[in-house]
Write a structure and sequence with these properties.
single chain; alpha/beta; three-stranded antiparallel sheet; 11 strands; elongated
């Protein structure tokens, strides 16, 4: 039975029977370990991870949310603690190069697409190394992907601003459910705070289980234990005021009476108002 040692470089295999040994040489290579940075899932946490990557001069790095982290066999992991000052430095550094780039980064981050963090890290590297408007170079596959994601998130933002339907609760708070494809609540806060500044309201993302609450002073993030998802249904709900259902009926009747059947284009209508939003639209009560 041969006795041998294993390591880097050339090694010999020596027979153990005491006879004249025969020597065999082999080489082993060092395994290249990859680096993974784990952050808390917040945008500031992600920017802190970017700061760490640049500080350590990492050309390639895997950045993962703590809730979704997966460690490889040859992976070195480092937990990143959110540092607002470091996040601001990254934000200001990118913004000094391009306002469009920082918008694309934030919007693409909110897409929550799998593997978005390392792609964004690569995008930021390109923006910071370029003296020109790199974010407009759509011949670059990375730049193109981030631009496309940012556009999709922006479109979802505008849809939510148009499709939110409030219902007045017995607590005198206007309440609306949404279920967007992307995490657009941070993007629509300013719109509704400005448009409905004189009333308290809650916009709740039932898909991500958090919402915005405006209390006439400012907007804060909340999380509710909702037993029921309050759709704009035909039946009355004990949560909302008695007049709320009457107003919805009035709006629904108006919507139906103004339709011109001969000019209905269902394909175009669904294109502008996808069916996945109908359950939260009061004018679509009878359609869902």
């Amino acid at each position: 039975m041969p006795l041998f040692s294993r390591g880097t470089g050339s090694k010999n295999i020596v027979l153990a029977n005491g006879e004249k040994s025969k020597h065999f040489t082999f080489k082993t290579n060092n395994m290249n370990t990859s680096r993974t940075l784990i952050y808390d899932g917040s945008f500031n946490g992600f920017l802190t991870a970017v700061f760490t990557g640049f500080e350590q001069k990492l050309s390639q790095v895997e950045i993962q949310r703590k809730s979704q982290s997966q460690n490889g066999l040859f992976t070195e992991t480092e937990t990143i603690f959110t540092n607002v000052e470091k996040a601001k430095r990254v934000w200001n550094g990118i913004r000094s190069r391009s306002n469009n780039a920082i918008k694309n980064i934030y919007f693409a981050f909110l897409s929550e697409q799998k593997g978005i963090e390392p792609l964004l890290y690569h995008y930021i590297q390109k923006v910071m190394k370029s003296d020109k408007n790199k974010e407009s170079d759509f011949s670059d596959d990375c730049i193109l992907k981030i631009g496309q994601l940012a556009h999709k998130v922006g479109r979802e933002k505008h849809r939510m601003e148009a499709f939110v339907r409030f219902q007045l609760t017995k607590d005198e708070v206007y309440f609306a459910n949404i279920e967007p494809d992307f995490d657009v609540l941070p993007l629509i806060s300013k719109h509704f705070r400005s448009r409905y500044a004189d009333q308290q309201w809650i916009i709740y993302d039932v898909k991500r289980n958090y919402g915005l609450f405006y209390n006439l002073q400012g907007v804060e993030l909340i999380s509710l234990d909702l037993k029921d998802v309050h759709n704009n249904g035909i039946l009355k709900s004990n949560v909302f005021t008695n007049t709320e259902h009457d107003y919805q009926e009035l709006w629904n009747n108006y919507f139906q009476s103004t339709n011109i059947k001969s000019r209905i284009n269902k394909k175009l209508h669904i294109q502008h108002v996808p069916k996945r939003y109908w359950k939260y639209l009061s004018e679509k009560k009878e359609a869902v």
